[in-house]
Amino acid sequence: MTSTPQAIRKQIAAGKLDPIYLIVGDDDVEMSRLAADLSSVVEDELRAFNLDRLYAGEKSGSPHAIVQAARTLPMMGDRRVVVVLRAEKILKPKRGGKPEDDGGETPADVDVLEAYVRSPEPLTTLVFVAADVDRVRRLYKALHKQATIVECWGLKGSRDAKGVDLRQVARQAEALVKGAVADAGQQIDAEAVRLIAARAGTDIATLRGDVERLLLYAAGKPRIAVEDVQAVVTAETSQDDWAVTNAIQNGNTGKALRELGLALDGGGVPYMILGQLAWFVRERLVQADPRRVRPAIEALFRTDLELKSSGGDPRILLERLVVDLCRRS
Length: 329
Hints:
Blueprint: E1 2-3, H1 5-14, E2 20-25, H2 28-39, H3 47-50, E3 51-55, H4 63-71, E4 80-85, H5 88-91, H6 107-118, E5 124-130, H7 138-146, E6 148-152, H8 166-183, E7 187-188, H9 190-200, H10 204-217, E8 223-224, H11 226-233, H12 243-249, H13 253-265, H14 270-288, H15 293-308, H16 314-328
Helix pairs in contact: 1-2, 4-6, 6-7, 8-9, 8-10, 9-10, 9-11, 10-11, 10-16, 11-13, 12-13, 12-16, 13-16, 14-15, 14-16, 15-16
């Protein structure tokens, strides 16, 4: 059965959840929100007992571990929720690779999960969150019959963007930009809205990233102008490995964010960039203003922990850190 995020939230409000959900798409933000909303049915004081967040591809997120968690009865509550993140590692594994390339799963391992899908535990809600699925595999076919499927393809509206009405996409993107800016208590010029929407095209991740970057850059301004958008999202090129730290040292937030985006888009590894920022704090900031080193180090540690625990999009986490360091510099 297919459904929508709005319909699922009505189910949550009514306290009537289905045994299995598959949330699939490219809108990571909406997918994460929906998974969190489903998790919210477990009372806060019982989450340690009745809520599991597993990562497919890891040993603790193997098909056997997923089934074991789902078959465990809830303690002191009515329902157990098991959320499987990065589920595409099981639902769309690499073709032609070795079993260990897909987290170690063999066909027999996946059979265990397929058997559970066909006969789920009624007191458990199992939630798969996947970027994509292989629709010809038996496991997906079983999910298609037994699970409630929610597709979150952002601006595209479907998995395949071919034939999409670009004017409708632009209107939807512009509405999202205006809504996010209004939620931040700010206003934005119409030309600025069109520019940021046009840059995203049908890519919801680009749109959300650009909007969050823009709001960070223009924080405190009552009205966002097209110049603010150009300062944050205009595409440029850079070959300077230390361009981000140099911009931070100069207190140029817009340039630092642009250079960070270029570094990541060019294949930069988040942990390497974090290491460069740590060097900046230890070597440069300590000389410029020692009083600001301690809170900067705390921000570094917080970002490092969130990166290691998959606490958010690495790009967004690093952007927040860069904005913080620019202010402290």
